[in-house]
Amino acid sequence: MKNNNETAYCIVDYAFKRVGGKYKGRILWVLRDGFMRYGELKRAIVGITPKMLTQTLRELEEDELVLRKVYLEVPPRVEYSLTTNGEELIPVIKQLRNWAEKEMSRKKISIGV
After folding, report:
1. Rg (CA), the chain
2. How far is CA 87 from CA 41, 67, 77, 84, in A?
3. Is the pLDDT score of 113 beyond 70?
4. Domain assignment of residue 112, yes or no
């Protein structure tokens, strides 16, 4: 959200507006190892619709967390990768993942597919 007139109620609110939601954290996580094409992202993010993937990628790009690189080829090729700002979030997401893994184990919750 590159809106300079935006008001955040607190710093955590600002952060969660950038990375919160159902898919943003998952997209950032799967991009941690390098670039991916749209189709690869679609396969990696279980349950996401093409419309939602496109919308979420645009928001992440607007917030300068994801870089979209277009190759002028036929057919066109587009690759997505993390920006430096996006890479800075990976340790935080990893900590959340580790916490969730412990909680899910403790509560005997399994990952559904």
Report:
1. 15
2. 17, 11, 23, 5
3. no
4. no
Q: Are 65 and 19 in contact (CB under 8 A)?
A: yes
Quick one: 2 exposed, middle or buried, by C-beta within 10 A (0-12, 13-18, 19+)?
exposed
Here the CATH number for the domain that contains residue 40 is: 1.10.10.10
In a domain, 52, yes or no: yes
Cis peptide before 75 (omega within 30 of 0): yes
Q: Do residues 34 and 95 lie in contact, with contact meaning Cβ atoms separated by under 8 Å?
A: no
Domain count, the chain: 1
Among 38, 37, 12, smallest CA distance to 92 is for 12
pLDDT at residue number 43: 97
pTM above 0.90, yes or no: no
Question: Per-residue pLDDT tens for 9-32?
Answer: 899 989 988 999 999 999 999 999
Q: Which domain holds residue 65?
A: 11-106
